[in-house]
UniProtKB/TrEMBL annotation:
InterPro entries: DctP_fam, TRAP_DctP_sf. It comes from the Bacteria. Residues 1-24 form the signal peptide. It comes from Halomonas organivorans. GO terms for biological process: transmembrane transport. Coiled coil: none annotated. This is TRAP-type C4-dicarboxylate transport system substrate-binding protein. Keywords: Signal.
Length: 325
């Protein structure tokens, strides 16, 4: 082999080796959640991060930097869109101003599997792309429902009217339709607002906070309403750094394998939440018969009517068919 040919061969081998190393380089996405790492409601995202990091070790790692202490929850979606962070796990209602239709996923009593079979995930991918976000999928918590909690006694629907109730945006139309006065506040401000009498009650699930609220809560209303689910948003530019094959495998893994498992993993956590309410002495105010039917129908119809004001009629009809009908 001539010296020139040998040099050319070595150069080609060097370039090929460098290309292979570049392809094999592990990609890291920095993520922030709308809840603290230690919060019970972060259970699903913790499972997601651990599973992704294990399954795609050597290809992709998610660096979960933290929650509200890193960035205010209501700013997460915009931060993902402008590239301040690569990924966020957030409540759909926390970015309803940017993607109003995202809140529809809460306005249902269906399970994740039932919703996934309707084409909802693909539709949300398209809708989010129009707003400069990549919708990776949902961290579902379908068995997790929401309640109204109060310090002072309520005996029925009439007693709820006129109350000042903390809500997140998705629940606002429902509470307003009950004749109450809704006030949007982050979860971290609920206790202080109750303690100071700024609010009379609040809308929330029963996960992980009960033992801290014993002195400001005495009653909760049933039946519970809606379903919980938290969206994983990725900055499109950061997402594009993943090879297309890896993109497809990560997204499919979350949507088709991991999300159904997470959706079924909440039962013990929910049972603990109920036990904590019992231990704290919270008294159930159970609506029955027509009152219960009216309560749940108001929860659904008020929210969907409000959503109709914010989204295209065709999109609204598609979403309601997927999530309610």
């Amino acid at each position: 082999m001539t010296k020139k040919l040998l040099t050319t061969s070595l150069l080609g081998l060097s370039l090929a080796t460098a290309a292979g190393a570049a392809q094999a380089e592990e990609i890291t996405l920095n993520a922030v959640s709308f809840t603290p790492k230690s919060a019970v409601v972060s259970h699903g995202f913790e499972a997601f991060v651990e599973a992704i990091n294990e399954k795609f070790d050597g290809e992709l790692q998610i660096n979960w930097r933290g929650g509200p202490e890193v960035m205010p929850p209501f700013r997460l979606a915009d931060a993902v869109r402008n590239g301040s962070i690569d990924m966020a796990m957030t409540s759909p209602s926390y970015y309803s101003g940017l993607v109003p239709s995202a809140t529809a996923s809460n306005l249902s009593f269906k399970t994740y599997d039932e919703i996934a079979q309707t084409g909802y995930l693909d539709l949300m991918t398209e809708v989010h792309a129009e707003r400069g976000l990549h919708y990776l999928g949902e961290i579902p918590a379908s068995p997790v429902k929401f309640f109204l909690f109060f310090k002072d006694e309520v005996t029925g629907l009439d007693d709820i009217s006129g109350k000042r109730i903390r809500v997140f945006p998705t629940i606002l139309p429902f509470v307003e339709s009950l004749g109450a006065e809704p006030l949007v506040l982050p979860m971290g401000e609920i206790y202080t607002a109750m303690e100071r009498g700024v609010i009379d009650g609040f809308a929330q699930s029963n996960l992980g906070w009960v033992d801290q609220f014993e002195d400001v809560v005495n009653y909760y209303v049933t039946p519970p309403y809606y379903r919980a689910g938290f969206n994983v948003l990725v900055n499109p530019e950061a997402w594009s750094e993943l090879p297309e094959d890896l993109q497809a495998r990560v997204q499919s893994y979350l949507r088709d394998e991991l999300a159904p498992e997470i959706d079924e993993s909440w039962n013990d956590i929910i049972a603990t939440g109920y036990q904590q309410m019992d231990d704290a002495g919270f008294q159930e105010v159970e609506l029955t018969g027509d009152d219960a039917d009216q309560y749940l129908s108001t929860a659904i119809e008020a929210a969907w009517d409000k959503l109709a004001e914010d989204v295209d009629p065709e999109l609204h009809a598609k979403l309601k068919a997927m999530l309610v009908d």
